[in-house]
Design brief:
37% of the residues lie in helices and 0% in strands. The protein is mainly alpha-helical. The longest helix has 9 residues, at 31-39. It is extended.
Length: 63
């Protein structure tokens, strides 16, 4: 399994985002989104907020 650690690595795999995609971002989940997730058979991943804070210190992802 390949581990993607940076946005650059992710972009190399999936390419750039389609125009207009950023405008669809919501600051929190809508009722529609919560219903969709509840009915989904797949898990939902989110960025680790702690990593964004620690990235400046070089400690994110190291154990």
């Amino acid at each position: 399994m390949r581990v993607i650690r940076t946005e650059a690595e992710l972009r190399a795999v999936i390419g750039t985002e389609p125009p207009g995609l950023a405008e669809k971002n919501q600051p929190r989940l809508t009722g529609f989104a919560m219903d969709f997730i509840a009915k989904s058979s797949r898990g939902v991943l989110r960025p680790d907020v702690r990593c964004r804070r620690k990235r400046a210190f070089g400690s994110c992802g190291r154990h």
